[in-house]
Amino acid sequence: RSRFPRPRPDQVAAFKGLPTGFIIDAMNGRGALDGAVKPIAGSAPFSGVALTTEAGPSDNLACFGALQVAAPGDVVVCASDAFRATAIIGDLMAGMMKNAGIAAFVTDGFVRDIAGIRAVGLPCYAAGVTPNSPVRNGPGTVGFPVVVGGVAIGPGDIVVGDEDGVVVVPFARIDETIARLPLVRQAEADLEAKVKAG
Question: Cβ-count burial of 42 within 10 angstroms (0-12 exposed, 13-18 middle, 19+ buried)?
Fold first, then answer.
C-alpha cells in the first residue's frame, strides 16, 4: 500500500530533536514501544513518518518492498512477531535504506552486522543482535497497520527515537500532541528549576 495519509512537513518538523519523554508526557504517559527495543551500535536519535512493514518471523521480504514505497525521511517500522532466532536486516539492507533516504529502521526483532550498521550510519533500533540470517520468501505487507513492541502503529504515524526508546504519535493525535508540547516544556523547566534549587 503506497498511498496513505501523511503528516504535513510542519507537523513532522515539530518533533525533530524532542526528547521522547516530552512526547510521552504530551500523550498522557503512554505511547512507547516495549523497552526491549533500543538503539543499536550507538544509533543516533531520529524522527520521521512511519512506513509500516509486516515481515513475520525469519523473513525480510517486506523490508525490500519498503524500499519501493519509502519517501525521504520515512522510518521503516518492521513487525517480526518479536522473533529472535534470526536477524531481520543487516548492514547491506541498512545501506540500501540509507541510500533511499530512509531516516531510521525500527523492529521488535533482531538485527546483525553491528560494525557495518555503525559504518552506514542509519539509526537502527531493535530488540537485540544475532548473526543468524533471515530468508526472503514472504509473505509480507508494506503500508498497513502493525503491532511492534506492544504498540499499534499505522502508516503515517510519527515515530521518534532516542536513548530512552521509541515513541509513536498516532496520525489522529499529531495536532493534539503538538499543542500540548509547550505546556510540557514549561512544566519540565519549572520542576527542573525547583529540583536544582533544592
Answer: exposed
**C-alpha dist (Å) from residue 165 to 19, 29, 54, 147:** 10, 14, 20, 16
d(C-alpha 131, C-alpha 84), whole Å = 11
Q: What is the DSSP string of 23-68?
A: HHHHTTT--BPPTT-EESTTPPPEEEEEEEEE--TTB-HHHHHHHH
Bridge partners of 161, per DSSP, are 46, 166
- So what's the pLDDT on residue 54? 96
Residues 127-153 have pLDDT tens digits of 999 999 998 988 999 999 999 999 999
Task: With 0.90 as the threshold, say if the pTM is over it.
Answer: yes
Q: What is the CA radius of gyration of the chain?
A: 17
Q: Nearest 10 degrees: CA dihedral of 47, 145, 68, 118?
A: 40
Q: Residue 138 has what pLDDT? A: 87
- From its phi and psi, is residue 142 left (phi > 0), alpha (psi between -120 and 50) or beta? beta
Q: In angstroms, rounded to a whole number, what is the distance separating the alpha carbons of residues 43 and 104?
A: 9
Q: How many CB atoms lie within 10 A of CB 53?
A: 30
Q: What is the pLDDT of residues 51-74, one digit of tens each?
A: 999 998 999 999 999 999 999 999
Q: Pairing state of beta strands 38-39 and 124-126?
A: antiparallel
